[in-house]
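Notes continue from the previous slide.

Worked example: a multi-chain complex. Inputs as given:
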Amino acid sequence: AQTVTQSQPEMSVQEAETVTLSCTYDTSESNYYLFWYKQPPSRQMILVIRQEAYKQQNATENRFSVNFQKAAKSFSLKISDSQLGDTAMYFCAFILDGNQFYFGTGTSLTVIP
Amino acid sequence: KAGVTQTPRYLIKTRGQQVTLSCSPISGHRSVSWYQQTPGQGLQFLFEYFSETQRNKGNFPGRFSGRQFSNSRSEMNVSTLELGDSALYLCASYRRDQETQYFGPGTRLLVL
């Protein structure tokens, strides 16, 4: 069975600081894609970053970067220079070869001014 | 390109009624997925349609159904509404070459 685990239901960080959100997943497949989505209070789900499992290099998007450890099945999200607009629920997800998406239960992040 | 659109954005129904929600994917995207999001259950997969065929289905009762039209627009229907069906229903459009889903703004359904 495919599963995604986000063990931190809630986190907070001071504005301008760095925070890391954890995600682990379980699959026996070798070809898949990993994602972090952000859902602010507006409830609009926004793609933050995407990682292809066959790529060794960690993906980065401006202040957002991931630490992808394939052997450990770990996919953490690092947010640098946190901003108030980063306050949101963050979901980790993956997809296998064009099949169904699997989502974690989310981590609620609050950026404190 | 325009994003994923969902209509209506808000809906209030009473128990026993039925409801139809609509989703228009991003132009060129042929796959549409539906999710139910509630505070207690998180994001739950309902079903996915590709080229007018249901390709995947989540663990929901038969009261939840969907379809996809030739223009890739999708509808989901919930019959005999229950209080527990109150939720945010999200539609996602899938881009195959990037293996990525893009979400619509959602429809908030309140069942009284």
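Summary box: Chain A has a mean pLDDT of 93. The two ends of chain A are 41 Å apart (CA to CA).
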